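For anyone still unconvinced, we reproduce a single protein record, the chain in one-letter code, the fold tokenised, and leave readers to judge:
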Amino acid sequence: MFISIGPSPSTHTELFTARHDGHVKLWERQPQGSWTTAADVDCMGGKCIYSMKCLDHRRVIVGGLGPITVCHLSTSTSSPTLIRFQSPTSLSSCLGLTLNRTLDVCYTCWRDGTILVYDINTAQAVRQFKGHEGWAYCVDVASQGNYFWTGGWDDETVACWDARDPALVGRHTFDSGVFSLSCSPGGDLVAVGLGSLFSGDIQLIDQRTQTIMPSFGGKHKRAVLSLKFADSGNFLVSTSYDRSVRGWKFPAGTPIFQTKEEAWVFSCDHVLIFFKNATN
């Protein structure tokens, strides 16, 4: 299951979840604290969803085995308003996507290594280029918005791109596949989730010097599927194929909490704000 929380962090009254069958649920928090389903719709025509981001309190953008789709969920009808983005027929699946700060540009990674950049207002691709050999697995945008980062599973590299060209700024090679990325709120560091069937490491890249830093120290028993910084930049959460969700003090890498789930947690987005507030 993929999880993304609605864009009102001060209230936390809405929550989106996506399933492998293409369905997205909109949850609403009730005054007594419980969560109820407000809408449950098929946004991907029954095909698997790999990635999802919130646009506002009723719209999400999803990617997976179907075309990139903006889905407007309504609590009054089971039929959502869908906007399908155009993509080359040769591209079989979108493995990861993210948004810029103004929510009008979407960066997407595809199974053949292609990177597509979309204008959300027109639903058209405005840039297309080869980013990786094999699977381009994950993508994130630096906090300033001038650069974005992509990770390759097959070629075991992380690439930094100038969002205005886009031109390659730097490429870094690791010793295992890249499953996840998260840019720090301060814009100085990128956390990289690596791994295989038997190990999962978290490494750091200095965005300013374009160098790999000494080991962060965070580890899982299997590949690190997702990473997310807290808004403060003081905490980092990671999820893994080992079915654990872990919290780390940043940048020290000191473990803070660990939970074990019944299934793989493929993604986390804005979940940290609950933990951050509780810690403060």
